[in-house]
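Exercise 7. Given the components listed, write out the predicted structure of the assembled complex. Treat all entries as one system.
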Amino acid sequence: DIQMTQSPSSLSASIGDRVTITCRASQGISNYLAWFQQKPGKAPKSLIYAASSLQIGVPSRFSGSGSGTDFTLTISSLQPEDFATYYCQQYNTYPLTFGGGTKVEIK
Amino acid sequence: EVQLVESGGGLVQPGRSLRLSCAASGFTFHDYAMHWVRQVPGKGLEWVSGINWSGDVAYADSVKGRFTISRDNDKNFLYLQMNSLRADDTALYYCAKDGPGRDTFNWPDPWGQGTLVTVSS
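Answer.
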């Protein structure tokens, strides 16, 4: 199975900060990577697919990049509603696998 | 609007069985692959199983041989039959539509609100 490793596992940031989350795959997955946001008590919501394509309705402050084994999710200017846990997920190979998550907290 | 409503969760003893259901509406159900994803409360996400439009399936190693995914394209329902349940199967189980996919498994989107399965004696 492909292992997905996210870093950091948590971070504290202030409103307006630029935040970057990394995701590393244990083997190459081309651009078959998605990012999700999950708020407490809610189901995950898809933000990005194909490593860098924004889902409809997702604010443009979110962006994704990377290919192969190394990927990033960037929030250009953190907003109050962005405090949540973020997960990456590969869909290059079955079984699908998720990263362990990155919790973004208020500083 | 896509709606996915899970049911069938509850408290079950180790070694017993449980069947989860997911009622789908708001999209052409038979045109999409579907997923089950689980989450231990307070922990991360684990993909459990997927089924494409024609019934091809895939499973996580942790459930292979114990869980069976199926779908009823006439009734717009997704199912997860869970046998030989273990304590580490305790989790919130989400049903999800595949983002774009009919034949292949991609990213789950959107997700239902989940049904909680607790395996304990």
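Discussion: The two ends of chain A are 36 Å apart (CA to CA). Chain A has a mean pLDDT of 97.
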